[in-house]
Write a structure and sequence with these properties.
By secondary structure, this protein is α+β, with helices and mostly antiparallel strands. The chain is 18% helix and 33% strand. The protein folds into two domains: 240 residues, no CATH class; 61 residues, no CATH class. It contains two helices and 16 strands. Strands 1, 2, 8, 9, 10, 11, 12, 13 and 16 form a nine-stranded antiparallel sheet that branches. Strands 4-3-7-5-6 form a five-stranded antiparallel sheet, with no helix packed on it. Strands 14-15 form a two-stranded antiparallel sheet.
């Protein structure tokens, strides 16, 4: 280029730069907003999936234990009003009217080796066909022997080579070290403890506690309660009672005084699903057991709780092991 000749190339003007920066900023803001929305949505979905997985994996355990109520218990214990098989007892205050606690007495729901094992006796009184392999007959395991009507024939005694009553059922029962332990396990489900920080205010853990001693109106805790699932807003229990005149099941808030009429238990829960979402508003109330009329439960949600999603759990559980 000759000296004094003007260049045909030119830069951007200030206005053009400002316009370009403005457009870029708008695009970046849109992208960032979409990214933040995606991250929040992923977090909510991830937390929701995690909570649902925890709930779905813990439910079968609780259902199985409730189903086992009365497993290996003789009729005398099942019919004893002081120690019913399934009740809503509060272990701290004796017999207290409560619909959000359930206690199970069973030889199944325990953590000792071979808990839940049973066998039969043959015509010679030999124990055969254990359901959990061959339990050693060396006196280290305790058993009871019940007839087909679940009347106690022998026990609890140490299982050894001694012949047993013939053609009956043998149950492996709980071994204990306390001065007067029952031969069955006692398990209680209830709301308690402190929920994790990502749970809505007012929620608790569904906890499982075990007890090793029972006297009238009192259960002795065996170790610390274990949380089964968290972020639970409500936990309710209803009892299915057989009505022979109507040939149907009637649901009530308490078990019957005559346990021969108890057929089912119904569990209802309101469980948080995901983390707080300020773009979502839940209903002001959720209903458990909506088909039960006066025995239904309306669970109210406060302003903060309505920013969370909730799922309703409703399970009917047949009491398969009661001796009726």
């Amino acid at each position: 280029m000759k000296i004094g000749q003007k260049s045909k190339e030119r830069g951007f003007t200030l206005i053009e730069l400002l316009v370009a920066i403005g457009i870029t900023s708008i695009v970046m803001a849109i992208v960032y907003s979409a990214y933040v929305t995606f991250i929040k949505s992923s977090a909510i979905q991830g937390q929701s999936a995690r909570q649902e997985m925890i709930t779905q994996t813990s439910l079968p355990v609780m259902i199985k234990e409730i189903e086992s109520a009365g497993f290996g218990l003789d009729m005398n214990i099942q019919e004893n009003a002081a120690t019913p098989v399934v009740d809503d007892r509060d272990p701290a205050n004796g017999l207290v009217a409560s619909t959000n606690t359930i206690t199970i007495r069973s030889d199944y729901a325990g953590d000792q080796m071979w808990s839940g094992a049973w066998a039969t006796t043959d015509a010679n009184g030999n124990v055969v066909n254990w359901t959990m392999g061959n339990i050693p007959a060396d006196g280290t395991v305790k058993i009871v022997v019940l007839d087909s009507n679940k009347n106690l024939q022998k026990g609890p005694v140490a299982y050894d080579a001694t012949p047993m009553p013939i053609n009956d059922i043998v149950y492996k029962v709980k071994s204990g070290n306390s001065s007067n332990p029952p031969y069955y396990y006692i398990t209680r489900y209830y709301l308690g403890g402190t929920a994790p920080q990502d749970c809505a205010t007012g929620t608790q853990n569904l906890e499982r506690a075990t007890y090793d001693t029972e006297t009238t109106g009192f259960l002795k805790n065996n170790g610390s309660p274990q949380p089964i699932t968290s972020c639970v807003l409500a936990f309710e229990v209803r009892y299915g009672i057989w009505d022979g005149t109507k040939n149907t099941i009637l649901w009530d808030t308490a078990p019957p005084s005559d346990f021969s009429l108890l057929r089912m238990v119904r569990i209802g829960m309101v469980v948080q699903k995901g983390t707080r979402d300020n773009t979502y508003t839940a209903p002001a109330a959720l209903t458990l057991f909506p088909d039960l009329g006066a025995n239904a439960v309306a669970v109210s949600l406060n302003t903060a709780q309505r920013s969370y999603r909730w799922t309703i759990v409703d399970e009917k559980i047949a009491l398969k092991s009661l001796g009726y």
